[in-house]
Amino acid sequence: MAVLIVENLRKSYGTTTAVDDVSLNVAAGQIYGLLGPNGAGKTTTLRCIATLTKPDAGTIQVYGATDARAIRQNLGYIAQEVALDKVLTGRELLELQAALYHMPSKTIKTRINEVLELLQLQEYADKLTGTYSGGLKKRLDLAAGLLHQPKILILDEPTVGLDIQTRITIWNFLRQLKSEGITVLITSHYLEEIDALAERVAIIDKGKVIAEGTPSDLKSQLGGDRLTIKIKEFAEYPEAEQALKQLKNLPFVTSGLINNAQGNAINLVIAPDPKAVAEIQSCLDTANIPIFSFSQSKPSLDDVFLSATGQTILDAEIAQAEITPTKKRR
Fold first, then answer.
1. Is the dihedral of CA 9, 12, 13, 17 positive or negative?
2. Which CATH architecture does the domain made up of 223-298 adopt?
3. Contacting residues for 27 by C-beta, under 8 A, at least 6 apart
4. pLDDT score for 324
5. In whole angstroms, what separates CA 85 from the centre of its chain?
6. Which residues lie closer than 8 Å to 227 by C-beta, 6 or more apart?
7. What burial class does residue 190 get, using C-beta atoms within 10 Å of its C-beta: 0-12 exposed, 13-18 middle, 19+ buried?
8. 302 or 29: which carries more pLDDT confidence?
9. 6 — phi, psi (to 5°)?
10. Do the beta carbons of residue 194 and residue 187 sit within 8 Å?
11. In this predicted model, what pLDDT tens digit does every residue of 91-131 receive, in sequence order?
12. Span 160-176, mean pLDDT?
């Protein structure tokens, strides 16, 4: 059953279109991922769903409700930026959160103890949040988002800037929530995070959904393995272009492009063929084109993005940073 339905969502800021006709359908008890580079429109989409930003067009339904107040009753929202009052203890912050949600006073103490135990924060609960590490702050932020027992938890880049051990801890926690029937909507530009967690994923670029489905289906649709070939450590574009032109003549090459962010490396997707590697080497040898390095792997979600846009997520982030170096990205 779909518990979150977004249809034809649009949002602009002045002349900048942040979200352009986004539609999503999220099932109950599912971890659903929004993957894309910084500036793709992920945060604006979440803020619209959480009723923090008013969309210009489109509809949002949460458990059939379209009224903002009814939607909020079913949502927990964890922003990318952790906002904690450093003069409050963890427990005091949760008490404030409970009051803001108008939770029944007789249940507040019990529920706070439950979320503190759930996120293993008992020993830190009565310490000032200003003394917390980054990982502890994120866990307290999660506790605050779960305090009112939402049916859907929305997380915007929940592990950005955290060490790998803390990231894994949060991943395992989100899997636990799913096992308890909570629906999780998560954004990330970490490929491995979405691949590891999400049952379905929407890949977003420039405010549009460019691909949607299960991670395995999206990768299998590419139809083969990925090859990355460098003819020099840092090849000139015309040199790489000449090599790609030769390689595209091979019958098992289904797609190919030049990746500027990898020093003009050649990215190929090939159909299964046991002679592929040998024939690629022979092709380039015949054209007197050297091979500096060569790697073969199964397709990733980055390859899905690459196939749809002609650039990797890293390429897109570099391009966005060059366009808006001083602006806060959405």
1. positive
2. 2-Layer Sandwich (3.30)
3. 1, 2, 3, 183, 200
4. 60
5. 27
6. 266, 267, 268, 269, 270, 276, 280, 294, 295, 296
7. middle
8. 29
9. -115, 130
10. no
11. 999 999 999 889 999 999 999 999 999 899 999 999 999 99
12. 87
**How far apart, in whole angstroms, are the C-alpha atoms of residue 231 and residue 79?**
43
**C-alpha pair distances (Å), 259 with each of 218, 268, 276, 306:** 21, 10, 21, 9
- pLDDT of residue 330 exceeding 70, the answer is no
Rounded to two decimals, the pTM is 0.81
| 305 Rama sector, left if φ>0, alpha if ψ -120 to 50, beta otherwise | alpha
3-state percent breakdown (helix, strand, coil) of the chain, nearest 5 = 40, 25, 35
Fill in the DSSP letter of residue 283.
Answer: H
Reported as half-sphere exposure (CB side, CA atoms, 13 A), residue 222 has a value of: 28
| CA–CA dist 328, 330 (Å, integer) | 7
Q: Which residue has the tokens 């299964």?
A: 272
Q: Where are the domains of the chain?
A: 2-219, 223-298
For residue 183 the two structure tokens come to 């629906």
Look at the block and give the residue holding tokens 């982030």.
317
The overall average pLDDT reported for the chain is 90
Tokens 């980054």, located at residue: 134
The CATH classification number of 2-219 equals 3.40.50.300
Using DSSP's 3-state secondary structure scheme, residue 280 falls into helix
- For residue 160, what are its two tokens? 């950005």
